[in-house]
Amino acid sequence: MNIIWLGHGSFRIEIEDQVLLVDPWLTGNPMLSEDQHEAATAGATHILVTHGHFDHITDVPDISKSTGAPVSGMYELAQFLHAAGAVEGQAFNMGGTIALGDKVTASMVPASHSSSADVADTRRYMGNESGFILRGEGQSIYVSGDTGIMADMDWIGDFYKPDIGILSAGGHFTMGMAEAAYAAKRYFDFKTVIPCHYRTFPLLEQSAQVLADGLLGVNVVEPEVMQAIKL
Questions:
Q1: What is d(CA 28, CA 88) in angstroms, rounded to the nearest whole number?
Q2: pLDDT over threshold 90, residue 223
Q3: Which residues does 47 contact at the CB level (< 8 Å), separation at least 6?
Q4: What is residue 35's DSSP assignment?
Q5: Does the structure show a pLDDT above 90 at 121?
Q6: I want to staple 86 with a disulfide (CB 3.0 to 4.6 A). Which of 19, 64, 148, 157 is the partner?
Q7: DSSP assignment letter at 86
Q8: Which of 168, 172, 197 minimizes the C-alpha distance to 184?
Q9: Which residue, among 53, 32, 15, 47, has the nearest Cα to 134 in the 3D structure?
Q10: pLDDT class of 193 with cuts at 50, 70, 90
Q11: Which CATH fold would you assign to the domain 2-223?
Q12: Which residue ranges make up each domain of the chain?
Protein backbone atom coordinates (compact mmCIF):
# COMPACT_ATOMS: atom_id res chain seq x y z
CA MET A 1 0.00 0.00 0.00
CA ASN A 2 1.19 3.50 -0.84
CA ILE A 3 -0.27 6.53 0.93
CA ILE A 4 0.75 9.70 -0.91
CA TRP A 5 0.04 13.16 0.47
CA LEU A 6 -0.99 15.76 -2.09
CA GLY A 7 -0.80 18.54 0.48
CA HIS A 8 -3.46 19.88 2.84
CA GLY A 9 -6.24 17.26 3.28
CA SER A 10 -5.68 15.57 -0.10
CA PHE A 11 -4.38 12.03 -0.56
CA ARG A 12 -3.68 9.45 -3.21
CA ILE A 13 -3.99 5.95 -1.76
CA GLU A 14 -2.79 2.99 -3.82
CA ILE A 15 -4.36 -0.08 -2.22
CA GLU A 16 -4.93 -3.53 -3.71
CA ASP A 17 -5.66 -2.83 -7.40
CA GLN A 18 -7.25 0.57 -6.72
CA VAL A 19 -5.97 4.14 -6.84
CA LEU A 20 -8.14 6.26 -4.54
CA LEU A 21 -8.11 10.04 -4.48
CA VAL A 22 -9.47 11.51 -1.26
CA ASP A 23 -10.47 15.19 -1.42
CA PRO A 24 -8.05 15.94 -4.29
CA TRP A 25 -7.38 19.70 -4.33
CA LEU A 26 -5.17 20.96 -7.15
CA THR A 27 -6.12 24.51 -8.13
CA GLY A 28 -4.83 26.92 -5.53
CA ASN A 29 -3.17 24.22 -3.42
CA PRO A 30 0.08 25.95 -2.41
CA MET A 31 1.78 22.66 -1.55
CA LEU A 32 1.26 20.91 -4.88
CA SER A 33 2.94 22.48 -7.90
CA GLU A 34 1.18 22.48 -11.25
CA ASP A 35 3.75 20.15 -12.78
CA GLN A 36 2.76 17.53 -10.16
CA HIS A 37 -0.96 17.55 -10.94
CA GLU A 38 -0.86 14.90 -13.65
CA ALA A 39 1.17 12.43 -11.57
CA ALA A 40 -1.05 13.07 -8.55
CA THR A 41 -4.19 11.96 -10.36
CA ALA A 42 -2.89 9.49 -12.97
CA GLY A 43 -4.68 6.15 -13.01
CA ALA A 44 -7.27 7.13 -10.42
CA THR A 45 -10.02 4.51 -10.09
CA HIS A 46 -12.23 6.26 -7.49
CA ILE A 47 -12.61 9.66 -5.87
CA LEU A 48 -13.93 10.03 -2.32
CA VAL A 49 -15.05 13.37 -0.88
CA THR A 50 -15.51 14.11 2.82
CA HIS A 51 -17.32 17.48 2.66
CA GLY A 52 -18.09 20.41 0.42
CA HIS A 53 -15.50 23.10 1.20
CA PHE A 54 -13.55 24.53 -1.73
CA ASP A 55 -10.21 23.10 -0.59
CA HIS A 56 -11.68 19.61 -0.93
CA ILE A 57 -13.94 19.63 -4.01
CA THR A 58 -12.90 22.47 -6.36
CA ASP A 59 -11.17 20.18 -8.86
CA VAL A 60 -13.22 17.03 -8.36
CA PRO A 61 -15.52 17.26 -11.43
CA ASP A 62 -12.59 17.98 -13.76
CA ILE A 63 -10.39 15.24 -12.29
CA SER A 64 -13.29 12.80 -12.54
CA LYS A 65 -13.93 13.67 -16.18
CA SER A 66 -10.27 13.49 -17.16
CA THR A 67 -9.55 10.19 -15.38
CA GLY A 68 -12.96 8.53 -15.63
CA ALA A 69 -12.92 7.95 -11.86
CA PRO A 70 -16.39 7.92 -10.30
CA VAL A 71 -17.05 10.20 -7.32
CA SER A 72 -18.59 8.90 -4.10
CA GLY A 73 -19.50 10.61 -0.86
CA MET A 74 -22.30 12.06 1.26
CA TYR A 75 -25.61 11.85 -0.61
CA GLU A 76 -26.20 15.57 -1.19
CA LEU A 77 -22.56 16.35 -1.99
CA ALA A 78 -22.14 13.44 -4.39
CA GLN A 79 -25.30 14.37 -6.25
CA PHE A 80 -24.09 17.98 -6.52
CA LEU A 81 -20.76 16.85 -7.98
CA HIS A 82 -22.42 14.39 -10.36
CA ALA A 83 -24.65 17.20 -11.62
CA ALA A 84 -21.49 19.29 -12.13
CA GLY A 85 -20.14 16.68 -14.53
CA ALA A 86 -18.34 14.18 -12.32
CA VAL A 87 -18.65 10.51 -13.23
CA GLU A 88 -21.40 9.04 -11.11
CA GLY A 89 -20.27 6.93 -8.19
CA GLN A 90 -22.10 6.16 -4.97
CA ALA A 91 -24.17 8.78 -3.17
CA PHE A 92 -24.38 7.18 0.27
CA ASN A 93 -24.64 8.13 3.94
CA MET A 94 -23.49 7.47 7.51
CA GLY A 95 -22.92 3.82 8.29
CA GLY A 96 -23.02 2.85 4.63
CA THR A 97 -20.28 0.77 3.05
CA ILE A 98 -19.46 0.70 -0.65
CA ALA A 99 -17.18 -1.53 -2.72
CA LEU A 100 -14.28 0.07 -4.56
CA GLY A 101 -13.36 -2.68 -6.98
CA ASP A 102 -13.40 -6.26 -5.74
CA LYS A 103 -11.08 -5.99 -2.73
CA VAL A 104 -11.45 -2.53 -1.19
CA THR A 105 -14.34 -1.03 0.77
CA ALA A 106 -15.13 2.44 2.09
CA SER A 107 -17.44 2.97 5.07
CA MET A 108 -18.75 6.44 5.86
CA VAL A 109 -18.35 7.62 9.46
CA PRO A 110 -19.22 10.91 11.18
CA ALA A 111 -16.97 13.95 11.46
CA SER A 112 -17.59 17.18 13.33
CA HIS A 113 -17.08 20.16 11.03
CA SER A 114 -19.34 21.84 8.44
CA SER A 115 -20.05 21.33 4.76
CA SER A 116 -21.12 23.90 2.19
CA ALA A 117 -20.19 25.19 -1.26
CA ASP A 118 -20.72 28.42 -3.14
CA VAL A 119 -23.25 28.01 -5.92
CA ALA A 120 -23.91 31.10 -8.05
CA ASP A 121 -24.46 33.86 -5.48
CA THR A 122 -25.45 31.64 -2.59
CA ARG A 123 -23.83 29.19 -0.21
CA ARG A 124 -25.46 25.78 -0.41
CA TYR A 125 -25.63 23.10 2.27
CA MET A 126 -23.89 19.92 1.11
CA GLY A 127 -25.09 17.34 3.59
CA ASN A 128 -23.17 16.29 6.68
CA GLU A 129 -19.39 16.28 6.84
CA SER A 130 -17.86 12.82 7.02
CA GLY A 131 -14.81 10.63 7.36
CA PHE A 132 -14.09 7.18 5.92
CA ILE A 133 -12.86 3.79 6.98
CA LEU A 134 -10.97 2.20 4.09
CA ARG A 135 -10.26 -1.52 4.19
CA GLY A 136 -7.95 -3.55 1.97
CA GLU A 137 -4.69 -5.48 2.07
CA GLY A 138 -5.68 -6.72 5.51
CA GLN A 139 -5.59 -3.20 6.97
CA SER A 140 -8.13 -0.66 8.16
CA ILE A 141 -7.49 3.06 7.58
CA TYR A 142 -9.36 5.82 9.37
CA VAL A 143 -9.51 8.97 7.26
CA SER A 144 -10.86 11.49 9.74
CA GLY A 145 -11.76 14.22 7.25
CA ASP A 146 -11.88 17.70 8.73
CA THR A 147 -13.00 17.25 12.33
CA GLY A 148 -12.62 18.17 15.96
CA ILE A 149 -12.48 15.62 18.74
CA MET A 150 -15.83 13.86 19.07
CA ALA A 151 -17.34 11.09 21.13
CA ASP A 152 -18.15 9.15 17.95
CA MET A 153 -14.46 8.31 17.75
CA ASP A 154 -15.06 5.87 20.61
CA TRP A 155 -17.28 3.53 18.63
CA ILE A 156 -15.40 4.12 15.37
CA GLY A 157 -12.22 2.88 17.03
CA ASP A 158 -13.97 0.01 18.79
CA PHE A 159 -15.99 -1.24 15.82
CA TYR A 160 -13.61 -0.76 12.87
CA LYS A 161 -10.34 -1.11 14.81
CA PRO A 162 -8.29 0.93 12.34
CA ASP A 163 -4.53 0.42 12.51
CA ILE A 164 -3.71 3.48 10.36
CA GLY A 165 -5.00 6.96 11.14
CA ILE A 166 -4.94 9.87 8.68
CA LEU A 167 -5.88 12.71 11.01
CA SER A 168 -6.63 16.37 10.37
CA ALA A 169 -4.36 18.12 12.85
CA GLY A 170 -3.56 21.67 11.76
CA GLY A 171 -5.74 23.48 14.28
CA HIS A 172 -8.04 26.49 13.76
CA PHE A 173 -10.43 24.66 11.40
CA THR A 174 -9.85 21.14 12.79
CA MET A 175 -8.10 19.38 15.64
CA GLY A 176 -4.61 20.63 16.39
CA MET A 177 -1.67 18.32 17.05
CA ALA A 178 -2.35 18.09 20.79
CA GLU A 179 -6.02 17.30 20.22
CA ALA A 180 -5.19 14.71 17.55
CA ALA A 181 -2.73 13.03 19.91
CA TYR A 182 -5.35 12.97 22.68
CA ALA A 183 -8.00 11.49 20.35
CA ALA A 184 -5.63 8.87 18.96
CA LYS A 185 -4.54 7.78 22.44
CA ARG A 186 -8.01 7.76 24.00
CA TYR A 187 -10.12 6.26 21.21
CA PHE A 188 -7.83 4.26 18.93
CA ASP A 189 -4.98 1.76 18.86
CA PHE A 190 -3.15 2.96 15.77
CA LYS A 191 0.13 1.50 14.60
CA THR A 192 0.69 4.42 12.21
CA VAL A 193 -0.59 7.99 12.30
CA ILE A 194 -0.26 10.46 9.41
CA PRO A 195 -1.23 14.10 10.12
CA CYS A 196 -2.78 16.31 7.46
CA HIS A 197 -4.55 19.65 6.97
CA TYR A 198 -1.44 21.40 8.28
CA ARG A 199 1.52 23.37 6.87
CA THR A 200 -0.66 24.68 4.03
CA PHE A 201 -1.05 28.21 5.38
CA PRO A 202 0.67 30.20 8.17
CA LEU A 203 -2.58 30.02 10.15
CA LEU A 204 -2.17 26.25 10.55
CA GLU A 205 0.32 24.28 12.60
CA GLN A 206 3.62 23.70 10.82
CA SER A 207 5.08 20.70 12.66
CA ALA A 208 3.78 17.36 13.93
CA GLN A 209 6.30 17.16 16.79
CA VAL A 210 3.59 17.65 19.43
CA LEU A 211 1.63 14.78 17.87
CA ALA A 212 4.68 12.51 17.86
CA ASP A 213 5.57 13.44 21.45
CA GLY A 214 2.04 12.59 22.53
CA LEU A 215 2.00 9.19 20.82
CA LEU A 216 5.15 7.45 21.97
CA GLY A 217 5.28 3.94 20.54
CA VAL A 218 3.17 4.89 17.53
CA ASN A 219 4.74 5.38 14.11
CA VAL A 220 3.92 9.05 13.48
CA VAL A 221 4.89 9.89 9.90
CA GLU A 222 5.17 13.51 8.79
CA PRO A 223 4.23 13.21 5.13
CA GLU A 224 6.04 14.92 2.28
CA VAL A 225 4.11 15.90 -0.84
CA MET A 226 4.18 13.25 -3.57
CA GLN A 227 6.43 10.93 -1.54
CA ALA A 228 4.89 7.51 -0.97
CA ILE A 229 4.47 6.19 2.57
CA LYS A 230 4.71 2.43 2.09
CA LEU A 231 2.74 0.36 4.59
A1: 25
A2: yes
A3: 20, 21, 22, 24, 60, 63, 64, 69, 70, 71, 72, 86, 89
A4: G
A5: no
A6: 64
A7: P
A8: 168
A9: 15
A10: very high
A11: Metallo-beta-lactamase; Chain A (3.60.15)
A12: 2-223
